[in-house]
């Protein structure tokens, strides 16, 4: 019971964000990490943050609708909720459209790949040969030696 209570009241790494009109200003004011990383609030390192993000040669984002931890699962690929708590895809999300931290630019440069994996819970993504083969391997340029006897799916 304590785990359920903690899971509903505590945000790991302060990655809490509620887009509803009453809560969003509080998030911008009190959240110590995300509004700055996303360049949603003005700060002295905003140009530096965007420049560093745009320094990525390839960003591969992996997620799927059967993720049982990340809500909404679209956030694994920079989607989120709108202010009525409907899940929106990355390209429909206002941070993408405004290109606050360079996500849209990275995408337009073809340096962003979105990989959707079906029928896999969150805790198995890092163990999955299927994720590696379909989502990672095409972009790394080298073969990872995997002992597939222990991998999931």
Features:
disordered N terminus, 153 residues, 33% helix, single chain, globular
Question: Can you give a write-up of this model?
Answer:
This protein starts with a helix and ends in a 13-residue tail after the last helix. With 153 residues, it is α+β, with helices and mostly antiparallel strands. It is globular and about 45 Å long. Helices cover 33% and strands 9% of the residues. The protein has 7 helices and 4 strands, in the order H-H-H-H-E-E-E-H-H-E-H. A hairpin with a 5-residue loop joins strand 2 (80-81) and strand 3. The longest helix is centred in the last third of the chain and has 12 residues, at 129-140. The strands form 2 sheets. It has a two-stranded parallel ribbon with strand order 1-4.
Mean pLDDT: 87
Q: Over the alpha carbons, how many angstroms does the gyration radius reach?
A: 17 Å
Helix content: 25-40%
Terminal CA distance reads: 31 Å
Tell me the major beta sheet. 2 strands, parallel
Q: What class do helices, strands and sheet pairing give?
A: alpha+beta
Q: Which consecutive residue ranges, at least 5 long each, have pLDDT under 50?
A: 1-7
Shape field: globular
Number of helices: 7
Order of helices and strands: HHHHEEEHHEH
Across the major sheet, the strand order is 1-4
The total count of strands amounts to 4
Strand content: 5-15%
């Amino acid at each position: 019971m304590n785990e359920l209570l903690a899971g509903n009241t505590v945000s790991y790494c302060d990655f809490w964000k509620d887009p509803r009109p009453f809560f969003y200003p509080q998030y911008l004011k009190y959240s110590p990490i995300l509004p700055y990383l996303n360049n949603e609030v003005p700060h002295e390192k905003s140009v530096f943050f965007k420049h560093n993000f745009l320094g990525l040669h390839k960003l591969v984002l992996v997620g799927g609708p059967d993720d049982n931890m990340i809500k909404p699962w679209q956030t694994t690929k920079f989607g989120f909720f709108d202010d009525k708590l409907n899940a929106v895809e990355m390209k429909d999300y206002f941070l993408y459209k405004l290109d606050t931290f360079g996500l849209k630019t990275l995408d337009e440069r073809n340096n962003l790949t979105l990989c959707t994996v079906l029928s896999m819970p969150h805790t198995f993504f890092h163990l999955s040969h299927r994720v590696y083969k379909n989502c990672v391997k095409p972009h790394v340029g080298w073969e990872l030696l995997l002992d597939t006897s222990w991998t999931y799916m």
